[in-house]
Design a protein that fits this description.
The protein is mainly alpha-helical. 67% of the residues lie in helices and 0% in strands. The protein contains eight helices and no strands. α1 packs antiparallel against α2, α4 runs antiparallel to α5 and α5 packs parallel to α7.
């Protein structure tokens, strides 16, 4: 895996992915109405009224005689394109975990998307502070949008942390074990993660699908579809975390035993870069 080159593409692609995913998340009822319309007339009318109220481009006619317009279809087509482009162009930063494989690229790209989401979240909050306290014109959407974005940040960061081996671990006893027993501990941990993911998906699939199909919203003035999107996303991310845990187990199986110390939190390359900057000043 190549190290980060600092290319602008590395950040523009995640941003483009966020734009496409955000557009689809807001206009997904159009595709539900086109391909899986509710059989209950009242539910159909409710969903169509909700879509028409929130449609960003209400004057655009739907393609193929449906609800989804050209922008909705364009976002749907560009989403996998930006995903593949992001996975192929992502590079390792100096401070990131060194042992990368081709299967780790998706998790690292999700990490880049998470970083860009944090930037977007900060911009939303700064905008709300400015208009509220400077212009005295508070928005109705900033708080709920911040909650919505923060939910995705929390979920996606968990997948990235799993790939980076950054979740909290207690090494006091682990480091004292021989490598063979460490592999046993790693296997038990992975089995527990996969088991948890299985039962969570098994027990929550029906509810998540129901919230998505009914397009359950937050019930506020802005009324974002937080329940309809976050609940299914929880299941998707948990499955990806379980898959990443298996990938980590396989890739670390033949690794040498590592004694963890407080110095592990210090990135040598970043420290040297800081020293050079201080020396130049």
């Amino acid at each position: 895996m190549q190290q980060r080159s600092g290319s602008l593409v590395e950040w523009l692609v995640p941003l483009a992915f966020i734009v496409c995913a955000g557009w689809l998340a807001w206009h997904l009822p159009a595709f539900i109405l086109d391909f899986l319309p509710p059989q209950d007339p009242s539910q159909f009318d409710k969903l169509s009224a909700l879509f028409k109220r929130n449609d960003v481009t209400p004057d655009m006619p739907g393609l193929f005689g449906g609800f989804a317009d050209i922008f909705d279809w364009l976002a749907l087509l560009l989403l996998p394109v930006t995903l593949v482009a992001g996975v192929l162009t992502v590079r390792r930063a100096p401070m990131e975990f060194e042992a990368w494989g081709p299967l780790d690229r998706l998790s690292v790209f999700v990490g880049r998307v998470t970083m860009m989401l944090i930037v977007v979240l900060c911009c939303v909050m700064l905008y709300e502070v400015f208009v509220r306290y400077v212009l005295n014109a508070a928005t109705l959407w900033a708080n709920e949008l911040s909650l919505w974005l923060a939910g995705f940040v929390f979920l996606c960061a968990g997948l990235y942390a799993m790939q980076q081996r950054s979740h909290i671990r207690i090494f006091l006893l682990y480091d004292m074990l021989p490598r063979s027993l460490q592999r046993v501990c790693d296997t038990i941990s992975t089995v527990l993660i996969v088991t948890f993911a299985f039962f969570l998906v098994y027990g929550g699939y029906g509810e998540a699908l129901d919230k998505l199909y009914r397009w359950e919203t937050f019930g506020t003035a802005f009324d974002p579809p937080i329940p309809a999107t976050i609940k299914p996303m929880v299941l998707v991310v948990v499955v990806l975390v379980a898959v990443q845990a298996i990938i980590n187990l396989v890739s670390d199986w033949n690794a040498e035993a590592v004694i963890h110390t407080a110095a592990d939190d210090i990135d040598a390359e970043e420290l040297e870069a800081l020293k050079r900057q201080v020396g130049n000043n």
